Amino acid sequence: MKAHPAFGDSLIAGILLIFDMGFGVAGIDRGVSFSAFLAVTLLMVGPVPFRRYHPLGTSYLILGGAFLQLFTHGGSDGIPVRMSDFALAIALYTLVAYTNRKTALIYSGWLLAGTLLWAIFQVGEIQAVFLVFFVFMIFGFSWAMGEFIGARRAYQREMEQRLLLLETERDQQAKIAVGEERSRIARELHDVVAHAVSVMIVHADGAAYTIRSQPEVAENAVRTIADTGRLALTEMRRLLGVLRSEDAETQWAPQPDARGVVELAENTRAAGVPVRLEINGDVDDLPVGVGLSIYRIVQEALTNIIKHAGAGTTALVRLARTPEELRLEVIDNGFGTPHDVVKVSGGNGLIGMRERAAVLGGEFEAGPNPGGGWRVRATFPLAA
């Protein structure tokens, strides 16, 4: 268990006080009054336990006690050296370590003046020269220790500030990462749910319309609804698995890629929208991010066609790969209203598609097709 710093200072003050009082009888025998002796003791030893909390005030109280000693302890035999005088070295060390050099230099000037006055009163004694040298050695050692401890304190403060800054930066990065992950999950869920629900609604309407007149068609539609729901549920479990606790068992499934566009086209045809698929080049070995973005953009574009294009709509999905880039185009001949619907309903389908392309350094464009209908274009760079 680490002791409190004030305990160590109190212990030092106690030792100085015991030795000072032990030698006090000799000082009083040399003509020093007890009241003057006690006042010097209280001024020089009393502030030591509080030096860390009030370095400047306690140091000058100690200095005041030293000057009081100069004018009250002098006699025919000169000024006696007391144990409490070591409090001056402690005060100098405290100012160097806990304040600044300017304050410590001013205090050193007062110490120099007091030491010279003390030496003048000791004139005639050869040992005074050695005592003055010894005093300056003690003060020099106190200054050096104060510089060393002060530098370590400054280094420690700087390290604490850096650690605090790093913790703050880490927390900010974590918040940004969480926000980005939430946006990604929101985009994925939107793509999965919107596409699946749109297909299920279309087939449900078809099943309700043909359940009496064409039971086989209605049965196929219901079967398609069940298959689409299972697929959507599997993808939702995969996405929501990242939000579960570490102890929970997460069901993992491969991320869809560009090869899944074939299945998307088939599902859209089953929903009643004829889709022609054109793939030029090999799309089986695309980077994972590009393949997933291609799949999601086509999924969202076909979902918009199912929801907004109207009866009699046909669609074209074209993928063209070159060594430098991959071009994606989804065109329909419907009413061309997804952009207006997004504005009204506040959906984020087109926004999500644009973000997917931008994250991978690609370009995205969506708008009315000059020949009628709606057109979605995206380009992804493939060069290293």
Automatic annotation (TrEMBL):
TM region(s), chain numbering: 7-26, 32-50, 79-98, 105-123, 129-149
Organism: Lentzea pudingi
Listed name of the protein: histidine kinase
Top-level taxonomic group: Bacteria
The UniProt record lists the keyword Disulfide bond: no
Histidine kinase domain segment(s): 294-384
Pfam family, one: HATPase_c
Alphabetic keyword roster: ATP-binding, Kinase, Membrane, Nucleotide-binding, Phosphoprotein, Transferase, Transmembrane, Transmembrane helix, Two-component regulatory system
EC number: 2.7.13.3
MF GO annotations: kinase activity
Record bears the keyword Transmembrane: yes
Xref: InterPro entries: DUF7134, HATPase_C_sf, HATPase_dom, His_kinase_dom, Sensor_HK_TwoCompSys, Sig_transdc_His_kin_sub3_dim/P
Reactions that this protein is recorded to catalyse: ATP + protein L-histidine = ADP + protein N-phospho-L-histidine
Gene3D superfamilies the UniProt entry points to: 1.20.5.1930, Histidine kinase-like ATPase, C-terminal domain
